[in-house]
Structures are given as structure tokens and as C-alpha cells.
Write a structure and sequence with these properties.
The structure holds 2 protein chains of 2 kinds. By secondary structure, chain A is mostly helical. Chain A has 10 helices and no strands. The N terminus of chain A is likely disordered. By secondary structure, chain B is an alpha+beta fold. The chains are: A mainly alpha, B alpha+beta. The structure holds protoporphyrin IX containing FE and FE2/S2 (inorganic) cluster (FES).
Chain lengths: 267, 257
């Protein structure tokens, strides 16, 4: 080819009009609606993959109180220790937390910016009638915002133990869950949030395949069914835990410390 | 047939605009929607009122000029162009609401006429291929499979009417831009500029103020040419790849010293 560099690029191989080395193109990517949507898709996938693992871990609650040391407490302990001595104590845990926080921040920031754009692109009072958009796709912003509130509350309750409406003792995972889910309002809040999670994932898990350009007419039915199945399985798996504790399907904790925690007054 | 028409009247782009109601009577059931508007306009002229402005050209569903939002839905409920809507589809005596395509980048110029030049600028940004001048190339030198040809033709069917934008809750132009990019991007002739095209067209689409796609699929449900959201998937993919392409093309440059 006679042309020394691709059209639209300068001699340095940078986009014409771009400033920095990689700054130009990354900036352009982030500023475009598609680029931002890809950020939403990738960060959403990270959150979604984490949710699958988290849901499976939670099911350990169904292994019951054990002989003083519930399986889920052992698992919680393992999460803190995993990776050591190669990593410092809780090292792996913090790496995962950092990734999740970054993903959540990117997801929400991109969505806020995109939503503002989308709102501006439609003159006020002219929302087009619904023809084939799904309930899930119409309520992504709502389900997302409730999930955000849920995540903040959930971390304050079980991770930082800030919310002590029912006593939360670090390390006593089983007893903490048992105590919290004796209260109907926590059960309702958790189960309703998981219902919205199901909606968010039903559209989101398919939508990300379209956003990444992986969906094709012949793959579409499979991808959509997989997304729906994923949404149902993940949210039912999560919702089973509060329901299990509330309905008495899993028994009271047995260990002494846990028993006092479960019966004790709020701190 | 008799109808009550609630029509959006707006004298120019700067004016506020308002709803006006007109009765039309003794309309032939075989009349098209645009013919019905013609009949009303003839009367308005006689009555000394400014006729209702609306876009049209071919009146046979191929040019994409006509652009009415009928009872809230772009081109009405039958997924055809506005000129292919007929009065027999409506209940005698009913009220019909007629307004322009609604999207912020499509400024209302007058009554039912909107400015769709943002589409022209998106096409200008990348909807072309470069062909070397010279002798006619040997046709068999560039084989194109029937599947590829079909994909290109399906995308090329877009007549640029803008209904997709009007039907989108986000005012996104992804179906249009996807169609215009895809019909060139899948063909051998479109390959040299493929990634620059995708990037430039998306950039122009964003610059025009269209919203982003949230994969609701409303666009394809009103498209009179039945363009599928698969072209949106193609555009997503080509745009993503174009970014990698740029990053790659700057990698590993040698300098002497
Ligand atoms: C629990 C964590 C979350 C997960 C697993 C998750 C997952 C996803 C996924 C996979 C997508 C699809 C991306 C795409 O279509 O390209 C998505 C989109 C979206 N998410 Fe989330 N998300 C989460 C939290 C949130 C939060 C906190 C918000 C709050 C603002 C939110 C708002 C949205 C919106 C508005 C969309 C775009 C929907 C669309 O394009 O139709 N999400 N999410
Ligand atoms: S006037 Fe040409 S498509 Fe309707």
C-alpha cells in the first residue's frame, strides 16, 4: 500500500486531533455512547459473575449450624485466609472487593451519564408507546437504583456490621443470618430486592451479549433463554437463604457464642 | 368516512406549536392517509387557513420521506411507511392524533415536517467506499457469497425515514447508523474503510445528540423496511474492534538512533 498510515490517523498512528498517546482514543471510547455502553456491559458482567459465586457460597447456609461450627462460618473464615501466606491476611478478599467497587462505580457512572443523554434526546412528554420492549428493559434504571440501595444497605449490615437492628457479630455468619432473618421486614426487603435483581439480569445478561456484538439471529433464542434462566436461578438462590431462615427450614444456631448473639439485645 | 383529526401545528422551528382539531368528512375508505390530509388541506386553503405541512415524495413506500406519528406510533401501528397507511384501517368517526416524529435531534421545522439532516451527516461521515479509477475490474475477482449479499441487501433496505429514532425511548439512531454501516461493512468493497467508517459514523451520531441504545428493540418494531436489530449488533462489534484496531496500529513503531 502506498498510503503510509491508515486514514484518520496521523503519522504517529494517533487519531487526528487526539492529544495524548493513549488518552485520545480512550477518551473517545468513553465519550461515545457505544464505548460507555461497553463499559456498562463489562462492569455488569463482572458484577454478575461475582453474584453467581456469591449465591453459591450463600447456599452453605443450608448446611445448617453443624456441631458448633456452621459450614458457612468455616467458608467465611476461608475467604479471609485464602491466598495467604502468598498474600497478606484478607489479601485476596480485598483484591476482589476493589475490583467489585471499581466495577460498580464504573457501571453507575456510565449509566448516569448515558441516561442523561438519553433523556435529553427525547423531547419532554413524548415517551413513545410500548410495542415490544420488555418489562425488564423498561425498568433497568429503577431495578438498578434499588440494587444500588440494596448493596449499600447489605454491606452496612453484614460486612461492616454497622446496622445492629439485630445483633451482628463478626465471624458468626450463621448466627447473624439467623438473627436478621427472623425479622419479617428484612426478609421482605431481601426477597423484593432479589426480585428486582431477576428483572435486571433478565434484560442485562442478554443485553450485554448484544452490546459486545456477540448476539446473532441464530444465537438469539439460546442467549435470551440462558439470560432468563440465569436471572431466575441467581435470584432464587439468593432469596432461598432469607426464606429458609425465616420459615425455619434451617435450624437455630447451636454454638454458645452464637446463641447468645442470637438471643441478645441489639448492641 | 368521517374523522376527527388532532394535528400538531407549529408555524416554524422557533414557534411553540399547539394541538388543533379538525373534522374531515366523506373520506373514501380507499384514500391513503396522505390523501386524506390533502383533502383537508384543500379545504383549509379555501377557508384561508395555512395548510398542514407534511413530508412526502414517492407515496409508494420506497423513498422514506413521509414521517407522521399516528396515534403515538411512528408511521402508525402497521409497520409501514406513513404513505402506505389507508383510512379503511381506522374506525369510522374516531379521533386520530397526528404529530411529527419526536426526537430532540429532529427539530420540528413546520407542523409535521422535521429536520432529518442529522441522518445525512451520519452517512457523510462514513457511508461511502473509495474506488480506484481505471478499467472496470473483473467481476469474478471479488466473489460475494449469497449470504453476504443477502445481509448487505437487508441492511441497505433502510430508507432513512427516522421512525426508529422516533420509536426509541432514548431517541437513539443506532438502527439507522447500524444499517448504513453494516451494508458496507459486510461487503469486500467496504473492508478498507471498515473500522474508520464505524468510528466516524458513531462519532457523528453522538455529535448530533441522539441517545444511546439500551437494546429495547422498539426501533425494529416500527421499521417499514424490517431492518433487524442484528445491524446494531454489527455496529457494536465493528466499533469495539475499531478501537482495538487504532490501539494496534500504533504499537511497535521503530525509531533509529
Ligand atoms: C448488583 C449488581 C449489578 C449487576 C450484576 C448488573 C448487571 C448489569 C448488566 C449485565 C447490564 C447489561 C449491560 C449491557 O446491556 O450492555 C446492566 C445494565 C444496566 N445496569 Fe446494571 N447491574 C448491577 C447494578 C446496577 C446498579 C447499581 C445500577 C444503578 C444505576 C444499574 C443500572 C443499570 C442500567 C440502567 C443498565 C442499562 C440497561 C440498558 O441498557 O437497557 N445496574 N447491568
Ligand atoms: S412518501 Fe415515499 S415512502 Fe412514503
Amino acid at each position: 500500500m502506498a498510503d503510509p498510515h491508515p486514514p484518520g490517523l496521523n503519522e504517529e498512528g494517533e487519531l487526528e486531533g487526539s492529544s495524548g498517546r493513549h488518552g485520545g482514543i480512550l477518551r473517545q471510547f468513553w465519550d461515545s455512547t457505544i464505548g460507555k455502553k461497553i463499559v456498562v456491559a463489562v462492569s455488569g458482567s463482572i458484577l454478575g459473575l461475582y453474584l453467581i459465586v456469591h449465591m453459591l457460597g450463600n447456599l452453605k447456609g443450608f448446611q445448617g449450624p453443624g456441631g458448633g461450627e456452621p459450614e458457612i462460618d468455616v467458608y467465611g473464615e476461608w475467604l479471609r485466609e485464602v491466598g495467604s501466606p502468598a498474600l497478606p491476611e484478607q489479601g485476596a478478599l480485598w483484591v476482589v472487593r476493589a475490583i467489585l467497587l471499581l466495577a460498580l462505580v464504573l457501571h453507575v457512572v456510565a449509566i448516569v451519564q448515558l441516561s442523561r443523554r438519553n433523556l435529553a434526546a427525547k423531547p419532554k412528554g413524548h415517551r413513545p408507546p410500548r410495542i415490544q420492549r420488555s418489562l425488564a428493559s423498561r425498568t433497568m434504571l429503577l431495578s438498578g437504583l434499588v440494587l444500588l440501595a440494596f448493596v449499600v444497605f447489605h454491606v452496612l449490615q453484614f460486612t461492616t456490621a454497622t446496622i445492629q437492628t439485630t445483633p451482628i457479630v463478626e465471624g458468626e455468619v450463621y448466627a447473624n443470618l439467623y438473627a436478621a432473618f427472623q425479622e419479617w421486614y428484612f426478609v421482605v426487603f431481601y426477597v423484593v430486592s432479589m426480585g428486582l435483581l431477576a428483572l435486571h439480569l433478565r434484560h442485562g445478561a442478554w443485553s450485554l451479549t448484544q452490546t459486545m456484538g456477540w448476539d446473532k439471529p441464530n444465537r438469539n433464542p439460546t442467549l435470551r433463554r440462558t439470560a432468563t434462566a440465569l436471572a431466575v436461578v441467581v435470584s432464587l438462590g439468593f432469596a432461598a437463604v432469607p426464606l429458609g431462615f425465616w420459615l425455619g427450614i434451617v435450624p437455630e444456631p447451636t454454638s454458645e457464642a452464637a446463641a447468645t448473639a442470637a438471643s441478645g439485645e441489639p448492641r | 368516512m368521517n374523522f376527527k383529526l388532532k394535528v400538531w401545528r407549529q408555524s416554524d422551528a422557533a414557534a411553540a406549536g399547539e394541538w388543533r382539531t379538525y373534522g374531515v368528512s366523506e373520506i373514501d375508505s380507499g384514500a391513503s392517509f396522505l390523501e386524506m390530509l390533502d383533502i383537508l388541506n384543500d379545504r383549509l386553503v379555501v377557508e384561508g387557513e395555512r395548510p398542514i405541512a407534511f413530508d412526502y415524495d414517492c407515496r409508494e413506500g420506497i423513498c422514506g420521506s413521509c414521517a407522521l406519528t399516528i396515534d403515538g406510533t411512528p408511521h402508525g401501528p402497521r409497520q409501514v411507511t406513513s404513505c402506505q397507511v389507508f383510512m379503511r384501517e381506522f374506525t369510522d368517526g374516531s379521533e386520530i392524533i397526528v404529530e411529527p416524529f419526536r426526537a430532540s435531534p429532529f427539530k420540528v421545522l413546520c407542523d409535521l415536517v422535521v429536520d432529518r439532516t442529522p441522518f445525512d451527516r451520519i452517512v457523510e461521515a462514513g457511508g461511502y467506499i473509495s474506488v480506484d479509477a481505471g478499467p472496470k475490474p473483473e467481476p469474478n475477482a471479488t466473489p460475494i457469497s449469497p449470504e453476504t449479499q443477502q445481509a448487505a441487501m437487508d441492511a441497505a433496505a433502510c430508507i432513512g425515514c427516522g421512525a426508529c429514532v422516533a420509536a426509541c425511548p432514548n431517541g437513539s439512531a443506532m438502527l439507522f447508523t447500524g444499517a448504513k454501516a453494516t451494508h458496507l461493512n459486510v461487503l469486500p468493497q467496504g473492508q478498507p474503510e471498515r473500522y474508520d467508517r464505524s468510528r466516524a459514523m458513531v462519532e457523528q451520531m453522538d455529535a448530533e445528540g441522539f441517545g444511546g441504545c439500551t437494546n429495547t428493540g422498539e426501533c425494529e418494531a416500527v421499521c417499514p423496511q424490517e431492518i433487524s436489530i442484528s445491524v446494531i449488533g454489527e455496529l457494536y462489534r465493528d466499533y469495539r474492534k475499531s478501537m482495538v484496531h487504532v490501539l494496534r496500529s500504533r504499537r511497535g513503531r521503530m525509531k533509529a538512533q
